[in-house]
Structures are given as structure tokens and as C-alpha cells.
Amino acid sequence: IQAEYDMPFVGALKAHVNLGYDLTSAQRQTFSPRALHSELKAGRGGNVYRRNPSQLNTVLETYLNYAAPLDALPGWIDLTGGYSYTESHAENPWFQASGLSTDLLGVYGVPGSQTSENQQDIQESRLISFFGRLNYNLDDKYLVGVSVRRDGSSRFGPGNEWGMFPAASVAWRISEESFFQDKTPFSDLKLRASWGKTGNQSFANYQQYSTYLVGNDQAQVQFGNDFITTIRPSAADPNIKWEETRSWDIGLDYSLLDGRISGAIDYYVKDTEDLIFTVPVAAGTNLSNYLTTNIGSMKNNGFEFSLGGDLIMSDDDGLNWNATFNASHNTNELVSINPFAGSAQQILTGGVSGGVGTLIQVLQPGSPINSFFVYEHKRNADGSPVWADANGDGTINEQDLYVDLDGDGVVNVGDRRAFEDPAPKWIIGHTSNVGYGAFDINFTLRAYLGSYVYNNVASNLGNYAEVTRASPYNLHASVLETGFENPQYLSDYYVEDASFLRMDNITLGYSFEYQGRSARLFGTVQNAFTMTGYSGVDPT
């Protein structure tokens, strides 16, 4: 619901109120009988799982806006000030049973079982914001903007709830200057610069408790004025605070030939402090093996470029072609790790399937966030990974397969390296809209260049040990090249270049009149094709 009121005593002053209410709920059930292949392999003996999540979001936003020319000075002023309140309440009850005594569902949809557990997760959060913004416009030539937000989030502990986030920007429309007009092909040229600080609070709540039942064992914990049945409070860092990003940007907007061609160029730098991340913690130091906390700082910088326009223009029945092109380049680096996040300047992350607790990525100062943390696999002359008893000790082990990077004569965790970046170095996009007579066709192309993916399907199933199990899966075809007799999860062989070009969609349409009304018949293909050297299913 939105409402707007013009103040009778100040003509340029308006009051706005926005109210929102959003409720989402779902019911899900998965039943895996004992004879299913995945159950045989896992040894669970059948499994049934139910989950009925629901979430209610409410929002109240109210603000005043004043926009009018100034009396004492030339130009216009646009002033906004307001308050917003948002609240989220989510419930996630679930039930799971394994070791089923039958493959038939009972009266209540649950067969007899050897073990079962039932949990009710409740998540609540609130965000309160006070905000203000002032824009000044002089002859559409000189533009200045300043803003400030003060946000309070329930996800942080006492003393860390509030954050202050200011921003400022200036712009100069050079094309409005007399010395520039009618002397260049530019119909519009604007130079701009901005600086701002933003905050991030997108993570699980500061404190959260769960109703968790195993048989009849229960306990009670006080939360505010209420008692909640629980035996498993989540891990929490009482000192966690807002993640803050300070960024500045210099940009140029332009158009040529009376607006027929337009685009923009931007260069930016973003410095993030108190980066929020979920990381492993030492056993016995908290209520979980993982903790969401402020781990350190990182830096991003790059530039963006866009260009678009009408390449071919004709009358309604002729050929028309409008196209846009954009490209962006970004460099990411973890700058530092907080002492609280771990005494070592490395944090392992990125759990994968296979092994026990296998982590394949690393947070390490000087490297991109989530770089792959792997051994350098020795290669044969044809480029295939080595699988041989190189030192002749009768077994094939790490010393035979991997490079001893630190030269200490032993291949161990000290020889793992931060290797390649999962984020693309370049993102390129193109859209074309072509029309001829009553027909039209449009398509979108997208490319990622310089991104890498860890092929977990290959690393988990690409070895001959799989065929020795009681209920094996099919092998991954990479085993024909590697000959691996057992898994090599930490080999850089599985880190693949995932650059790609994809046609996200293409649409062909035909417009006509039907009984005096305009109509259009069209067909669309999504994900039309993907060109990539990545051997897995999806390079994204």
C-alpha cells in the first residue's frame, strides 16, 4: 500500500507512506526407499525428510520530500528525509528419519525407522533506518548530492547494532557549457565523481536458538523474556559488527549524433573492512565448528564500459537494428586477516563432496577471495597428470604425484598453493534488437573470461576405487586420462578454466492486427547454447 499527501501549507512538500506485507510458505517431502542406489551407497537404509518453511516480511517506510527552486540562490533543491522499519520472521520445522523398517509410507506419511530427529528453527530479524538526502541542481549543468543513513540491525550484539553510512557525489555536464556546444559531435557529455560508505548485515542472526528433539531429551534456555525448548544454540560471535565498504568512482556519460549513440565509462575502487565470513574455528572454542565473524579486509578495483545505439534506422517497414555492448573488469584481493579469525594468515573454506571435511578454497592475504588451495600436480609430457611410483618405494603417494614447492623434501599442507580465481576477470555482454517489417528478433549474449571452477564431479568419481564398492556409481570419464586408482581431491588437475560464451535467450516475433487489435506471435529459446572448454555440466 502506498500513499502520498501534498502538504497544504507548503506546496512543494509531500509526505509518503509505504506499507508492505509478504508471506511465503512451502511444504516439501522427500522419500528415499531402502533399495534406492543412493541409500545403498550411503548405508542409510532408507530415508524420509519433511520440511515446511515459512517466512513473513513486513515493512513500513515513511518520508518527506521537498523539491522546489531556491529563492536566495539559483538552481533547484530536492530534499528527502525519512524512516523505515523492516521485520522478518521465519520458521523452518523439519523431520528426518533413516534406517526405515519398510518401504511403505504409514498412515501419517512416515514409515517405521531406527533413528529420527525433529527440529524447529526460528529466525527473526529487524532493521531500522533513518535516512536523508539532499540534491542540488544548477541549470542541469552542476549537480551535487549528499546522503546519510543510520541503520540499526538486530543481527548484531549489544553495542554494535548501529552503523552510519554517508555518501556524496558531484557531476558536471560539460556539454551545457557555451565553449563546448556546437563544436563537437557530442550531444551530451557529463563528468561525475562519487564517494560513499555502505554496510552489510546479510548473515544469520546474532543469536538464534532451535527446538531440537532427540527422543525425549530437552532443555530450556531463556531468550529475552521467553523460554524456548532447546539443546542446540548456534555458534555466535558477540563482537561481530557491520561490514563496511568505502568506495569511490569516477565516470563519464556520453552520447553522440543527437543521442543515437550513448554509453558510459567508470573506474572504481572499493575497500571493505570487517569482512563477514563463515569460517572454521578451533574445536571447543564455540558451540559449532563454524562461526560467522569479521575476518579481515579486502579490495576490489576495476572499470566498466558500455556502448549502445541505433546502428540502422529506417521507416516502420524497413530494417532497424539497436544494439548494446558492455564490458567490466574487476580485480579482487584479500588484504588482511583479523587476529580473531585465526592466528595463521590462512583460512580454509569451500567444502566439497568426497573425503571427510575436504576444503578446497582458501582466504589468504595477497590472493583473490576463495582462491583454490591445491597441490601442483606433476605432469607427463602430453600434459596428463602423473600417476606412477616415481621414487620406487612400492606405493604411489603425494611424493610421487605433487611438486614439493617449499623444497623441504616432504609434500604436505605447506606445499598447497592459492591457485586461480573463481571470479571472472572480464564480464562481457551484448544485446541486439532487430526489426524488419512485421518481424522482429532479439537476443542476448554473455561471456565470462578468466574464471575457474573446481570440477567436484570429476574429483569425486574420477578414480577406479569407485568400482570396488558394493554399489558403485558410474566413473567420471577423466579417469581414462588420469588412471587414478584413488581420489586426488587436492590436485590442481580438477581446477578448470571455465570461460564461456552463452546465448542466454533469443526471441523471434511477428506482429499483426487481429479483429482491429494489435497482436504479436513470438517464440523464445532460453540458454540457446554455451561455448566453453570446461568439461563439467555448467561453467557458472
Describe it for me?
The protein is mainly β. Helix content is 4%, strand content 55%. The protein contains four helices and 27 strands. The chain has helices at residues 37-42, 398-401, 456-461, 479-482; strands at residues 2-6, 13-25, 28-32, 47-51, 54-69, 76-100, 113-138, 142-153, 162-173, 186-200, 210-213, 220-223, 226-229, 243-256, 261-280, 290-312, 319-337, 347-351, 359-363, 371-374, 417-419, 426-436, 439-449, 452-454, 495-497, 500-514, 517-532. It has a 19-stranded antiparallel beta sheet that branches. The radius of gyration is 30 Å and the shape is globular. Mean pLDDT is 88; it is low at 207-233.
Main β-sheet description: 19 strands, antiparallel
Report the average pLDDT across residues: 88
Helix content: under 10%
Shape: globular
Q: SS-based structural class?
A: mainly beta
Which runs of at least 5 residues are low in confidence (pLDDT < 50)?
207-233
Helix segment tally = 4
Mind telling me the C-alpha Rg? 30 Å
Strand elements, count: 27
Bin the strand percentage. Answer: over 45%
- N-to-C terminal Cα separation, in Å? 38 Å
